[in-house]
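queue> pop job 88
queue> type: inverse folding (structure -> sequence)
queue> payload:
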């Protein structure tokens, strides 16, 4: 049971603890687009299942902020499914600070020989402007993405939520939108 709790903690802590720093110029650029935009990216689950690189398949929308979030989810799921071995796809979709934190999670998955099965499905995503920058609020479902050990046995405790609400800050870095951290909470969405 202790290992299961540790696995849950290791899975969530890097995302929950990342604070990152927003920039005023980031918010100004995002303010030139619509204030909130809902999207569902077709083919995201297929890209994750096939281990495709972020950005594979059609764009989710005309909103590069929303697309940056979907690219992050694809890259993150590829890392989780690989048991932490595949991390090169993460660097282009997140800030260096977040990459370092997620790298620690990948290291933990490798050391404990954990990996995810199945795919994470983003149910909806929308962009909102807040005082701390541009935030993507997204609901995703992990029903098909179980964390298992090297024997295929689930390491998550029974009753672990499968619906999560992401609130991720997205920044414009060298002309490219990337995820800079935020929070993830279990929530029926």
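queue> result:
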């Amino acid at each position: 049971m202790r290992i299961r709790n540790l696995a849950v903690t290791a899975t969530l802590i890097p995302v929950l603890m990342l604070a990152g720093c927003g920039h005023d110029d980031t918010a100004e650029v995002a303010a030139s687009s619509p204030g909130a935009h809902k999207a569902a990216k077709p083919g995201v689950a297929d890209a994750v299942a096939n281990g495709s690189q972020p950005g594979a398949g059609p764009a989710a929308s005309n909103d590069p902020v929303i697309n940056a979030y979907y690219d992050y989810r694809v890259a993150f799921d590829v890392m989780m499914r690989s048991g932490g071995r595949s991390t090169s796809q993460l660097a282009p979709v997140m800030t260096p600070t977040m990459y370092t934190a997620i790298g620690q999670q990948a290291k933990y998955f490798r050391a404990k020989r954990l990996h995810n099965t199945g795919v994470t499905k983003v149910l909806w995503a929308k962009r909102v402007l807040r005082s701390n920058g541009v935030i993507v609020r997204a609901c995703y479902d992990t029903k098909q993405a179980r964390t298992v050990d090297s024997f295929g046995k689930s390491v998550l405790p029974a009753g672990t939520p499968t619906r999560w609400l992401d609130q991720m800050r997205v920044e414009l870095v060298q002309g490219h939108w990337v995820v800079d951290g935020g929070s993830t909470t279990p929530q029926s969405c």
